Amino acid sequence: MLSRLSLCRRHPLCQHFAAVVAASRRPVATFEAAPVAPLTPPRQTPNVMHGTRLATDPRWRRRMREDLYRRRMLAGPEPERPRSVWSNWSRRAELSAAAHRLGLAGLAGFSQQWLDRVLTFRESAEADGVTADSSIAHQNVAKGYELDDESSDSVAMATSSTPAESMPRDNAELVPTGRALIAEHCGRFLARELPHVPENLREQAVSLLTSDQSLSFVAGHLGLAELLSGVDTRPSMLPLSVEADAFAALVASAKLCCPNLSEGDEAAWRLTRDFLLTRLHNSDINEWWTIDAQRRLPLLSESLAAAGFPADEPLEFRLMGQSAPESPVYSCFQVGLYIRREFLSSGFGETAAQAQDECVSEALKTLFDTADSRAPMNFKLTYADLASALE
């Protein structure tokens, strides 16, 4: 039937039907993408010198680099060497930079020779066979270079008017004086800023500030460890007491080198204030001392008596709130402390006893004026202001 209809080419319907039949017999063309092989990136190997290895590199280069890497691993880690052993080290320039960094460059009577002797340890130097009289020029000549007069003047500080005979040979005599000055400055500053804190607690804070760990922390960040002479300045071999003694000797030298006594006191006070006492900034002052748990309640009674309350006035603890008291995990208690029906403080804890201890601690902070809401300490005080305030 289809063949007969296809033979009729005159009638328009037959022509249309024949075209539809022919189209149904024709295979439909499909446009499918040909499979493409995945791209494999070139093989890359680590390269110490140039980052990565390209596929176009010759084969011997990879073996050479592997051999160099293996030799470097067999050689072991780089030995720890102080900064002064490098060829570009200049002790004169480093001392000049340290003096400007410490604010001692324009101080009357202070010079590089003063700073050089302050950072010299006599006993260690003699034990190592190094004399304490080794000057800056000798060390520069030993490294193969020496500064001329013009260049030395450009990096040198003000020439000291102090005779060489009156200068200390090393810091052996300056260390005890410097430690005493630092302790005196810290005690006076805390007594002025924290007048309501008991003296024994302030002494704990002073002992922490003047400890070897605290002083060595300051000296290390000031770069004094690399300038020490006569000792092993490698970080792993340098004890904390050596860096602490260097900073203490520096404070003493700032006072003793000045011909004017008031100017020397101010210079020594600035070193202690700017580099040591500023550690108290943005820190909880209550963490600088420790109060035993058995001592807190008697200390609170003594502080209340000093504040004007009767000594026999009883303290009253009240339970202000609780949450999930039967649960060992989610329990929370809030206890308030009252005296004469006046609210003093409140504390939170997992148990009522812990909340009571925290309440006593908060009351001590309020009486000592060491709460978080207190005004910041004044780090712009001069030595004259500090002395006049205590008088």
Shape: flat
Mean pLDDT, rounded to whole units? 80
Q: Output the helix-strand order.
A: HHEEHHHHHHHHHHHHEEEHH
Low-confidence stretches: 1-7, 127-161
Structural class: mainly alpha
The CATH architecture of the largest domain is Orthogonal Bundle
Q: If strands are numbered along the chain, what order do they take across the biggest sheet?
A: 3-4-5
Largest sheet properties: 3 strands, antiparallel
Q: So what's the CATH class of the largest domain?
A: Mainly Alpha
Number of strands: 5
- The helical percent reads 40-55%
Strand content: 5-15%
What's the CATH superfamily of the largest domain, by name? Ribonuclease III domain
How far apart are the termini? 131 Å
Number of domains: 4
Write out key terms for the chains shown.
Ribonuclease iii, N-terminal Endonuclease Domain, Chain A; two-stranded antiparallel sheet; 5 strands; ribonuclease III activity; RNase_III_sf
